[in-house]
């Protein structure tokens, strides 16, 4: 599926969702959703994962990504307009309040019937913002010269190289958000309409001129996108991510051809043997 607003100058965006085999077997439609909004200064990207146990979660996920791409649009301004990481995080949090309030009004009843997660990224000159509630994930791609700066709130980095730049400095991948530790909700998925949603928000402000790309995913692809480290938290699966981003950056990229390849891959035995869940990818790369 093509982004409704197209791709902005300087970026290429691709999004796709695939029905999980469990839903296919049960005759349940895909309950994931994604949406992209192009603004004068950048992008708003959003993905949502409707809860399998909620009867109308597919409608909930579709509604929440639409609300999010509208509410977060005013946040997409160049870093120099508001060069303060804490203030930027406050902007992101306020936008989520607007989304949640509008979502609860839209539900017109118990929000659990429409239960859905939400992951949002804003891309603007000089910075990237991320906000999530639930178990979605974000991977940031930076040029090889930026090191770990991309994963640190308010961190600075030198200007990036173009895609496919210095082979001696391959792209780096950084996982956001980092899971809460020691939380009583650590093993519980929180949804936009959950009473604990505001307490369980994860918000990041990445100050880095070297951001080359970003990928959002629902949890159905966690096993493909992340690899388990011998100790410590999971790490991005660099080889798989590099393949995705490099294909999107190709000069001969063609949307429909890439969509066919992705659909075939997401429905392959390689993926379905590790997850029966719906799967959504939404990613953008600087061109």
From TrEMBL:
<dbReference type="InterPro" id="IPR001932">
    <property type="entry name" value="PPM-type_phosphatase-like_dom"/>
</dbReference>
<feature type="domain" description="PPM-type phosphatase">
    <location>
        <begin position="20"/>
        <end position="146"/>
    </location>
</feature>
<feature type="compositionally biased region" description="Low complexity">
    <location>
        <begin position="149"/>
        <end position="168"/>
    </location>
</feature>
<dbReference type="InterPro" id="IPR036457">
    <property type="entry name" value="PPM-type-like_dom_sf"/>
</dbReference>
<feature type="region of interest" description="Disordered">
    <location>
        <begin position="144"/>
        <end position="171"/>
    </location>
</feature>
<protein>
    <recommendedName>
        <fullName>PPM-type phosphatase domain-containing protein</fullName>
    </recommendedName>
</protein>
<dbReference type="Pfam" id="PF13672">
    <property type="entry name" value="PP2C_2"/>
</dbReference>
<feature type="domain" description="PPM-type phosphatase">
    <location>
        <begin position="173"/>
        <end position="266"/>
    </location>
</feature>
């Amino acid at each position: 599926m093509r982004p409704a607003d197209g791709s902005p100058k300087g970026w290429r965006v691709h999004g796709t969702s695939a029905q999980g085999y469990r839903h296919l077997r049960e005759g349940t439609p895909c309950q994931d959703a994604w949406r992209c909004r192009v603004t004068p200064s950048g992008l708003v990207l959003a993905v949502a994962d409707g809860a399998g146990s909620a009867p109308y979660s597919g409608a909930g996920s579709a509604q929440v990504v639409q609300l999010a791409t509208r509410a977060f649009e005013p946040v997409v301004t160049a870093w120099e307009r508001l060069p303060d990481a804490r203030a930027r995080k406050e902007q992101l949090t306020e936008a989520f309040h607007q989304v949640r309030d509008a979502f609860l009004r839209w539900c017109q009843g118990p929000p659990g019937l429409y239960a859905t997660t939400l992951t949002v990224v804003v891309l603007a000159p000089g910075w990237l913002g991320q906000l999530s509630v639930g178990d979605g994930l974000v991977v940031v791609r930076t040029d090889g010269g930026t090191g770990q700066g991309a994963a640190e709130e308010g961190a600075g980095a030198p200007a990036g190289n173009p895609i496919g730049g210095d082979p001696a400095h391959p792209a780096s991948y950084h996982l956001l958000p980092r899971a809460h530790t020691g939380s009583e909700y650590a093993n519980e998925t929180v949804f936009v309409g959950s009473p604990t949603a505001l307490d369980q928000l994860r918000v990041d402000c990445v100050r880095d001129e070297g951001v080359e790309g970003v990928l959002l995913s629902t949890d159905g692809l966690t096993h493909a996108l992340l690899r388990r480290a011998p100790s410590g938290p999971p790490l991005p699966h660099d080889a798989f991510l590099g393949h995705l981003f490099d294909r999107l950056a190709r000069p001969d990229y063609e949307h429909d051809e890439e969509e066919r390849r992705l659909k075939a891959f997401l429905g392959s035995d390689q993926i379905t043997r590790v997850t029966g869940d719906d799967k959504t990818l939404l990613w953008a790369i600087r061109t």
